[in-house]
Amino acid sequence: MSPTSSLFSPHAPRRLLPLLLPLRLSSSAAAAAPAMPRRRDRTQPPPQEWKPKAAEGASSSSTTASAAAEIAAPVERLTLASPAAARAGTGAAQLWVPRGYSTSTTNASVASSPSSSSSVADAGHGVDSVKLSKIIKGAPDFAVDNNTFIEAKIRATFYPKFENEKSDQETHKVFNDAAPPNIAIIFMCQVTLKHSGSLFMYAGHLGGAYAKNSFGNVYTAVGVFVLGRLFREAWGKDAAKMQAEFNDFLEKNHICISMELVTAVLGDHGQRPKDDYVVITAVTELGHGKPKFYSTAEGIYSRDPYCGRKSATSFFAAYDALCEEGTATPVCKALDEIADISVPGSKDHVKVQGEILEGLVARIVSRESSSQMEEVLRNFPQPMLDSVDSDLGPSLRDICAANRSDEKQQIKALLENVGASMCPDHSDWFGNNGLDGQSRNADRSVVTKFLQAHPTDYATKKLQEMIRLMKQRHFPATFKCYWNYHKIDSLSNDNLYYKMVIHVHSDSVFRRYQQEMRRNQGLWPLYRGFFIDVNLFKKNNKKAAELSKDGDTLLKNINGALDSSSSAVDGLADEDSNLMVKLKFLTYKIRTFLIRNGLSTLFKDGPSAYRTYYLRQMKNWGTSAGKQKELSKMLDEWAVYIRRKYGNKSLSSSTYLSEAEPFLEQYAKRSPANQALIGAAGNLVQTENFLAILDSERDEEGDLQSERGAAPSSPTSAPVDVVPKAEGLIVFFPGKIENMCGTTKAAAVPVIPDSEGTDSNPFSLEALAVFMFRVLQRVNHPGNLDKTSPNAGYVLLMFYHLYDGKSRREFENELYERFGSVVKMPLLKSDRTPLPGDVKGILDEGISLFRLHQSRHGRAEPSKGSYANEWAQWEQRLRKTLFGHADYLNSIQVPFDFAVKEVLEQLKAVAKGDLKTPDTVKRKFGNIIFAAVRLTPSDILGVLQKVGERNTEVNSFINGIKLEDSLNKAHVTLAHKRAHGVAAVASYGIHQNQQVPVTFNALYYSEKMAALEVQLGTVNGEQINSRNEWPHSTLWTAPGVAPKEANTLPQLASEGKAKRVPIDPPITISGVVDFY
């Protein structure tokens, strides 16, 4: 096999080096570090390719051999045979080709086979344009009958929605709850840097290039160009051959590669990158079954610190310590120290993007992947780059700057510059055979026919099942269909080819779909970036009968087999998206969420509304009080600055950094505190001359829309213990009341109906039915929400959806944290019978209609939208159904007087401070400064009492400083962030909330301070040591004396300036490891 004949060959490890991100692994084995390649900027990267930590014991040879054997199969499966080997019939054992897929024999060498570059581009010319036009125009009349079949193949997809819609505290809990209890033995935590860019998926020149919800536009053209240019960086003069071979491999094996497209030409995210590049985030095999996402060892594609349970908890602790001030350099430094093995990637975040780091992605993977990855890293070291002295041609920014007339001109220039070996077919962008890109839209009936036709295989059946359910539930999603121009020469009246795009409009759909998956475990996941090739065709009666019979047999054989074995076969490599969380840094969120996403509010509604917006966001994130104060000052100044400069003309969100970055840079220069708040600023990349020309009404990638309004939930607030009479008590039903309480010093007490709720709403359908029933009986309501209102049902549904997306627990926890107490009003009897079927049916119908209306018309009145007739009919049937079950609805309610009595009793308890706030299993974070062992003051006082009984001077000292009144809390510092580093603090994460023995050996005291000398014990057999030179617990300091001064007590005692009183025998109590 020639050196350039394979992308993934174990014999010739040519590479997609520019696509790699730094990698971190856990391991028990060490290996010699091979030399790193010299970068194009002539700088030498770090001296080690991967960094193993000291192992507790050497791994056995059998373990290594086993790991090598396990990794051999996926590596060999990714091998591409050279053209000569293919013709000779050699290398076939190394090339895995899914059954049923075409195995093209196109020569990978563009130079030796010129036709390979143009054959695809010329596709479609064999079909007469007039005939083709007739086929397309007649497609809506295609009738589905018993001889009609459908074949669907997923062409591109990414992981299901990340777990990032909750606050960071909640995602920690989701991660820990999802992880198996024996995770340290079986599973590991994998952490990846989140580069700030756009989702880009590539399935080869025939499979297509895709953005998040679209294809055939400037987003995908930019992606293809950047990917192609990286081949030139990696392979130099051999890039064209490798590009063609790469495309052929993806097509033969039906593989899609997902990437983060990081570029300055497509609009602003958190920081304009210094260079344009892509990094691989997923490699997906799209066979006849469910998509298989390769593990890191199989794909080698991302920056992943692997770690066991110990490092996983340390990781979360490190994130908590850095989340409000972390930038790329300190974050990577901390991860390097925490991870067991560290591998820097070929794209350094600081060099190519900058210091502003969007976040981290954490997921659970199998422990075997560690040994597999070590084997890969040893066998396939990073080689030298071939392009150091190569002419790479014009850059992305050069091309965009030179082609400014319109979007099509830019697309054409990009595709022509990337070359025919990378992109020989431009039909997705410009059409084919006289049909332009605008003619590619297919009629809406395609989806209906897709669901009606006979499926030819298992994948098609499962996709029909998914789409049918989404349509039945009226999920806010569209199924857009386009003509597949790659198949234009195969079109006939009875053989139609389409591309289907599944576009999910709301993040809540992913949560609701997951609920459906829990009820029906045979459902396939709903992925992000979902593109399907569809073939709708007919066969004659005989062929149709044979195909139908074969299809039924196939479905029966695989229907149970694949689903029943999927958990064993796929494992975490396929299902790890369910254990994947995304955690963002405040320095990034300042720019995107608080500045960029707040622009519309600032310019439309003014500074006051903008202040309400950003305060709400920070509360939702659980931002520390200190940072909230600092940010409020900075954002208020930003609002005045940008409004003064732009007046009433809003700043564009796609170029907002042109104004925000200089402002932040100047603000950061004022003080070190401001610099820490901003993170990094300056060196702004000017994009005005090369920004891609985009349709202003389109956000094809989707990040901007989804990030806005996707605020996490779980604000924090101190609970109210007792309500002073002078400050008052406001009793309210949930709404915006916090500002009123802040200005009047009143305590707010939310009153909510007691209800079990659902997975996605804090109120049950029974509660909704009762509320509607009550409204439809009342008269003369001041707001006209009574029996005379023609839209009463719609209004109640609007109220019901105010809390959509939150479970009952999440809803109550948020109220407890914001207000300190909750009063629950009894509503439904516990022994009630289930909701009648027709009542549930009318409510489900109304909910679905509301979501359709909201998706299309927003908050417009129902009578003014396209569903006006449906609303009118539903309102009438609602009344008929509810009043038809009046006896049932009356019988399930608790008596009104009982409800009033219960509410009054709870209000009295709140006013007296007797109502205990439950533990919401959340904590404040983001301002972790140190790790410590928490001690109970009463235990400390007990120790001192015993010492005082033996020593009268100690007794007099303790009584003199009135320690019993002043000692409210005590701890033993283990590590401090500023003195010992983030990693040192985070290393205690595995022991958090664990009890540890604390032994007191001596008491030190002087006129200005007092402390107990301590010796710490073990937790689960592991010794707990303090990083302080002198482990102690500070008891008291005089006014004006900082607690850290207690560290000098041993020195003062040696100088006779303090006293040391031994405690003999030593006294031991119990403490708890925690963070502060």
Automatic annotation (TrEMBL):
<dbReference type="Pfam" id="PF08302">
    <property type="entry name" value="tRNA_lig_CPD"/>
</dbReference>
<dbReference type="GO" id="GO:0006388">
    <property type="term" value="P:tRNA splicing, via endonucleolytic cleavage and ligation"/>
</dbReference>
<keyword id="KW-0732">Signal</keyword>
<protein>
    <recommendedName>
        <fullName>tRNA ligase phosphodiesterase domain-containing protein</fullName>
    </recommendedName>
</protein>
<dbReference type="InterPro" id="IPR015965">
    <property type="entry name" value="tRNA_lig_PDEase"/>
</dbReference>
<feature type="signal peptide">
    <location>
        <begin position="1"/>
        <end position="31"/>
    </location>
</feature>
<feature type="region of interest" description="Disordered">
    <location>
        <begin position="29"/>
        <end position="68"/>
    </location>
</feature>
<dbReference type="InterPro" id="IPR038837">
    <property type="entry name" value="tRNA_ligase_1"/>
</dbReference>
<feature type="domain" description="tRNA ligase phosphodiesterase">
    <location>
        <begin position="916"/>
        <end position="1057"/>
    </location>
</feature>
<feature type="compositionally biased region" description="Low complexity">
    <location>
        <begin position="55"/>
        <end position="68"/>
    </location>
</feature>
<dbReference type="GO" id="GO:0005524">
    <property type="term" value="F:ATP binding"/>
</dbReference>
<dbReference type="GO" id="GO:0003972">
    <property type="term" value="F:RNA ligase (ATP) activity"/>
</dbReference>
